[in-house]
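Consortium newsletter contribution from the modelling node. Members have asked for a concrete example of what our holo predictions look like. Here is one, prepared for the F0G complex that several groups have been discussing at recent meetings.
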Amino acid sequence: MDVQRKKRSWAEPYKIKVVEPLKVTTREERQRALTEAGYNTFLLRSEDVYIDLLTDSGTNAMSDYQWAGMMLGDEAYAGSRNFYHLEEAVQKYYGYKYLVPTHQGRGAEHIISQILIKPGMFVPGNMYFTTTRLHQELAGGTFVDVIIDEAHDPANEHPFKGNVDLNKLEALVKRVGADKIPYITIGVTVNMAGGQPVSMENLRAVRQFCQKHKIRVILDATRAVENAYFIQARENGYQLKSIAGILKEMCSYSDGATMSGKKDLLVNIGGFLALNDWDVFEEARNMVVVYEGLHTYGGLAGRDMEAMARGIEESVQQDHIRARIGQIEYVGEKLRAAGVPIVLPVGGHAIFLDAKRFLPHVKQVEFPAQTLAAELYLESGIRSMERGIVSAGRNKETGDHYYPKLELVRLTFPRRVYTQAHCDVTVEAVEEVFDRRSSIKGLKMVYEPKYLRFFQARFERLA
Ligand code: F0G
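And here is the predicted structure:
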């Protein structure tokens, strides 16, 4: 790698060819919008949002190369040429043998869960992700968190907070037996922990352990390229390796992967299930025609598959990933300097405000992270997302809330969308809310849907 270049700024490695105007609203307009949305940022209209940091999912800007690929969509029902491009790209960069396209990540999670999990089984994972865990539960499985303890501590600066704790995994095997564990899900990076990476050493160790016990390893490869960047930056022996090389080595320690292409892969829609095992692939190919579409399109248009194939190529470019993570680090450093409590170290796709420390006077049952996300919108028109007790949902046995240790607000950066000036405005807005934090009151939930409640729940301000 070019050492000289490392010292320079992460400046966006692209120039802007098409623009979309942003709308600035007044505080009165925002209060009206927030009330209408039941204090849930998922229920705001995009039109009423100034800088949208709700998610990095499907919100990426595509390149001219990807847009050109959209015109080459082969919209045949069966055997589209774009499917074969995508298959080649997945084989080349991720190294898996077989590909089943899906409409997005949860489509792949649904299929793998239904195939491998039987009622009464246990599925360990390095912290849960909302849709992943729900599909495991709907298949009759019980999720078991085996992430290292450091991940639950927002101030702990462990460089690989996403790592699996092998002692926890071993304890689970002893408790329930390896035959009750169809696979382990490893998120790279771990979204709910703050976009935290897993080290190569840990992936290798998990692989070894699981091979011994005949447990499959399934990666949630949604942000695997971001994980590869952290390995390059932080792990001994990887500084001179390419992102593509690191990515492929990561995948080599697994039997398959679910993918939400809407993140790393720089597209607006799409996902896949990738597998090495022919038998599992055969079943997946059978199921996909029931739930998603024929096995050569899986719910996607040909043009979407082409854009994703091209996005894979672009995602592993060093300049791209360095600027991508550089932008997040830039915001993180400014907030840290201002004394705003955030999850450290700063992760791959977002800054996570620590709502427990930001609003210590708001009890967890008064939804501190939900409250903070609402206040930030009211202050500035910036939209963020709750990742705390609302997202955690309820325990299906006891009916009580899950009480996660982390109560976070996620400022998630879409790839290639916002500039450094937008980053500055975001920091200023968070600081303004921080300055008046002691006067902020919590919320009560007035409507709660049965599944994935955070999407549609409604709240009112406590008097
Ligand atoms: N796995 C991870 C780690 C994710 O972050 C997501 C989506 C999924 C799976 C599901 O993929 O949305 O394509 O069905 N995360 C989005 C987010 C929604 O905002 O973090 P999907």
